[in-house]
Specification:
Elements: H1 4-11, H2 16-27, E1 33-35, E2 41-44, E3 49-51, E4 54-56, E5 65-69, E6 76-81, E7 84-86, E8 98-100, E9 112-114, E10 123-131, E11 134-145, E12 152-159, E13 162-172, E14 177-182, E15 187-188, E16 192-197, E17 203-211, E18 218-225, E19 230-237, H3 248-301, E20 304-306, E21 320-322, E22 328-331, E23 350-352, E24 361-369, E25 375-382, E26 399-405, E27 408-411, E28 417-419, E29 427-433, E30 438-443, E31 449-453, E32 463-470, E33 474-477
Parallel strand pairs: 2-11, 20-24
Antiparallel strand pairs: 1-4, 3-9, 5-6, 5-10, 6-7, 8-9, 10-11, 12-13, 13-17, 14-15, 14-18, 16-17, 18-19, 21-22, 22-33, 23-32, 24-29, 24-33, 25-26, 25-32, 26-27, 27-28, 29-30, 30-31
């Protein structure tokens, strides 16, 4: 009997060109892009939601790694790998609540289903898909909304010659819009409105208005969820018999007393406001002086070397494009055919500076051009930082940086530290103190500190500048 291999060779001969194509397809995985919805996905509290995500061009993802996560790569919401769901290491708050819908895996669809939606589920999600050394990711936003109880309207006694009517409702998210309406649907001004947030994160509200006799005795209280564009409404009619009969002399006396006490109260209020304003101005002057002293102290403790930094093309992720002077990096439209040398990042869109520092104090500035980009990060990394596969953007991995991720500005601590969006700068000064093991980020525009990793955070080894770009952002090293 002839060997099977020989029989196949005789019956199905392969041309050299076809054999080459087969080898290429086996050894070089196809390139793809990961897409999700541009607009936020809205979910209702207590119900379920499917977060869409798919590959383009359409291809099977059955043997790929699909990772859904929030701010940290390792702390995943759901992980599919080696053809099965992996639950070891899943975030505790998502255990038993997630499912990767596999019906469309062969077509490149990798949507995530989350059941029993909670308020804490709201925020950004990253859909990460990897096939061998090729990967892609997209960011989408989940908004959570909840409809509260039907408004409860009650009469709360007489006030200002009319009837005080109160409307109450609870269980709303986000904070609802509250409106009083008359019989014709015209809005009525409320007397007061109080909204509070319970331990469960849901809002409850109470609003009141005064109903005068022969005026708007038919009225309704309406609460609207602006995310779902849905509302709940209750109506009431105040009969004439409820309205008080008031002596006009008592009304005049009441008006006089109100004016008198109002004048006294206004005088006391203005006096207290003057004292408070004087105190706040004094505190502000003290804070400004402290900040100026701190800046002067930082500059006087040790000499700062203004470092000239360029980018190392041997470390750049293949889809990053460097300028000729190696001062600017941006996200490219195509995957560049570059050698997969040991120094190159192959899973995260990062690049290192050519220069490294082991002692002294060094500063350089990075200009940020956001464009239509979703994410960027600026900081430093140790020489031995991981370059291959998924890495954690944190000091434990050897990265100290600040990051803008869609609608969030944060320091890449572990876990990430939120920073005020009002402080997102367009030009960042990075100050590395190798002797103290500390790195500080400063707004180069007004010299205000952004964030400082504490002394001893950065180890005593060679440290290099580190940048990350996703989407249409552009980072430039200032001369």
């Amino acid at each position: 009997m002839e060997p099977v291999g020989c029989v196949l060779h005789i019956k199905f001969p392969l041309s050299s060109e076809l054999l080459f194509i087969v080898v290429v397809l086996v050894h070089f995985p196809a390139k793809f892009t990961v897409f999700g919805p541009d607009d936020p996905v809205t979910a209702i509290l207590g119900q379920e939601i499917v977060l869409p995500c798919h590959l383009s061009p359409s291809m099977s993802a059955a043997n790929m790694e699909v990772r859904w996560f929030r701010s940290q790569f390792e702390s995943f919401v759901h992980l599919y790998r080696d053809g099965t769901d992996q639950y070891e290491g899943q975030m505790p708050e998502y255990q038993g609540r997630t499912e990767l819908l596999k019906a469309g895996l062969t077509d490149g669809n990798v949507p995530l289903r989350i059941i029993n939606i909670r308020r804490a589920d709201e925020g950004l999600y990253l859909c990460f898909v990897q096939d061998d050394t090729i990967y892609g990711e997209t960011v989408l936003e989940l908004r959570v909304a909840g409809l509260g109880s039907a408004p409860l309207i009650s009469v709360d006694g007489h006030q200002d010659g009319g009837i005080r009517v109160v409307c109450q409702s609870a269980g709303w998210y986000p904070e609802p819009e509250v409106l009083w309406k008359d019989l014709n649907g015209q809005h009525l001004p409320s007397l007061s409105e109080t909204t509070s947030q319970g331990d469960n994160g849901l809002f409850e509200t109470e609003t009141a208005l005064i109903v005068k006799e022969h005026s708007n005795q038919n009225l309704s209280c309406c609460l609207r969820n602006t995310v779902l564009n849905q509302e709940k409404e209750s109506a009431v009619y105040i009969a004439d018999s409820f309205f008080p009969r008031v002596n006009p002399w008592m009304v005049a006396l009441s008006v006089i007393l109100v004016v008198l006490f109002g004048f006294i109260g206004l005088t006391v209020y203005l006096f207290k406001m003057k004292e408070k304003l004087t105190e706040e101005v004094g505190k502000r002057d003290i804070e400004i002086e402290k900040r100026d002293n701190e800046i002067r102290w930082r500059r006087s403790v040790a000499p700062i070397e203004e470092a000239t930094v360029t980018l190392d093309p041997d470390t750049a992720y293949p889809q990053l494009v460097l300028s000729e002077d190696r001062k600017t990096v941006r996200w490219g439209d195509t995957w560049q055919d570059l050698p997969n040398n040991p120094e190159r990042f192959d899973s995260w869109a990062c690049v290192l500076g050519c220069e490294g520092f082991t002692s002294g104090r060094h500063c350089w500035e990075v200009e940020v051009e956001v464009g239509d980009g979703l994410s960027w990060a600026v900081g430093v990394a140790r020489e031995s930082v991981g370059r291959k596969g998924g890495i954690s953007l944190s000091p434990e991995e050897g990265i100290w940086a600040v990051q803008r991720l869609v609608g969030q500005f944060q320091a890449l601590t572990s876990p990430a530290t939120p920073l005020p969006l009002s402080r997102v700068p367009s030009r960042i000064r990075v100050c590395l103190d190798c002797d103290r093991g500390q790195v500080t980020f400063i707004d180069a525009g007004d010299e205000a500190p952004i964030f400082t990793f504490p002394p001893g955070s950065v180890p005593g080894e060679r440290i290099r500048p580190w940048l990350r770009v996703v989407g249409g952002s552009r980072l430039s090293l200032c001369p």
